[in-house]
Write a structure and sequence with these properties.
Rossmann fold; 36% helix; QueC; nucleotide-binding
Length: 231
């Protein structure tokens, strides 16, 4: 790669949203530097999906997988604490509180580590698939949070002090799930390689919040979800 090549770090979970970000960054002309996080999540199977996505885009060799085991040690989320049930169609409480699937500080940690990788690789952007519509209960998916982290990056990094900077790209933040699917299909995003299920089985459950949002998105986009679901 030449010094003039645009580079971007992609926070790649192996799910629908982050994989769409991968495709959009590719379409925008960036060289891709994917980074994934093994934080003891219940749905750890998504790490294997992330590996497949990285290979699909020809950047498997530079795909970083970072272990953050302490998030499971901390618990406090249905995704990292087996004593907390994943909400589904039968047990989801009627509440406007932050969902139990929120992982405390997760995106703050992810963006901090991705910033370090961006500096080392000479990347000018970090792509993250946060969405303020479908996950409006998550405080670390809001535009206000992203803007504040950008301000911190400008103050806390060599490139920021030198005036070059690193932007946080959130192309999906105001898109419905249907629009995400539609735009992804247009650019050939390999949704068959992704998973969204919180339960982490080979076949998606179809009942957790994440599965239901995904299925609804494909339905409203007039397309069939290519992954396998439990009967």
């Amino acid at each position: 790669m030449s010094e003039n090549t645009k580079r971007a770090v992609i926070i790649l979970s192996g799910g629908l949203d982050s994989t769409t970000c991968m495709g959009l960054a590719k379409e925008a002309g960036y060289e891709l530097f994917p980074i994934s996080f093994d934080y003891g999540q219940r749905h750890k199977i998504e790490i294997e999906n992330a590996k497949q996505v990285a290979e699909h885009y020809g950047v498997g060799a530079r795909h970083k997988i970072i272990k953050l085991d302490f998030l499971r040690d901390f618990g406090g989320s249905a995704l990292t604490d087996d004593s907390i049930a994943v909400p589904n169609v039968t047990n989801a409480p009627e509440t406007e509180e932050i969902p139990v699937t929120y992982v405390p500080g997760r995106n703050l940690l992810f963006l901090s580590i991705a910033t370090s990788y961006a500096e080392v690789t000479g990347s000018s952007a970090i792509y993250i698939g946060v969405n303020a519509l479908d996950y409006s209960g998550y405080p670390d998916c809001r535009p206000e949070f992203i803007h504040k982290v950008e301000e911190v990056i400008a103050l806390a990094t060599k490139v920021g002090v030198e005036g070059k900077g690193i932007t946080i790209e959130t192309p999906l933040i105001n898109w419905t799930k249907a629009k995400i699917v539609e735009e992804g299909l247009k650019i050939g995003v390999p949704y068959e390689l992704t998973t969204s299920c919180y339960n982490g089985k080979a076949e998606a459950c179809g009942e957790c919040d994440s599965c239901r949002l995904r299925l609804k998105g494909f339905e409203e986009a007039g397309s069939k979800d290519p992954i396998a679901y439990l009967p």
